[in-house]
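Progress report, Aim 2. The chain analyzed during this reporting quarter is listed below.
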Amino acid sequence: MADTLRRFLEVVLEWATILLMISLTVVVIVAVLYRLSGNSLSWYDEVAAIQLSWITYYGAALAALKRRHIGFDSVLLSIPMPTRMYALAFAEAVTIGFFVLMAWAGMTVLEVLQGEYLVSLTWVPVQFTQSVIPIGAVLFIVCALLSLPEYWTKTAAGISLEHAEIEEEVESEMEKAAETHAASREEMQRTEAEHAAEAAQAGDGKTNAARGDR
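Predicted structure tokens for the chain:
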């Protein structure tokens, strides 16, 4: 169940982040083209800032799910057991506690902003644009909890996520290189066999021709 939810969240957050980045790129390009033509979009700055903040929150949740936030695995793994696990539990509790506080503060902010609208787009409620604060905080907490069991197990075993990922990439590249080398050897052997067969046929042809002359 947890693995299914994790994969589902990963796909949803990946696509959400990709679509937000594409839309931000389109908005920026359109705004630049309008500026070059001597015009300007009144809503560009406000909308671009909102899109950037959405990318930040949803991207942070995705990074938490994949454990890609900046960390110091080498420092953590240098701590002897069981103190290492106590340190990990403390760090996770502080992080989750911070985002619980952020979610609560975000809901409070939404209540304060009730009835307000964007300056440039008067039909867009500010509550909608700022809803990313509590939503992003809750998503971060959920993603952190879903990725915690694997991280906990690897930390207990003394495995660095960063080093493990690098080792996997190296092994993958070595396997690809080995497959490429094997394919090249097979191609060379096939070519040599073809050349040998052609040479044999040519030799047989010359032998038959010599016999005919006799």
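The chain has two domains: 2-159, 160-214. Residues 160-214 form one domain. These observations will guide the mutagenesis work planned for the next reporting period.
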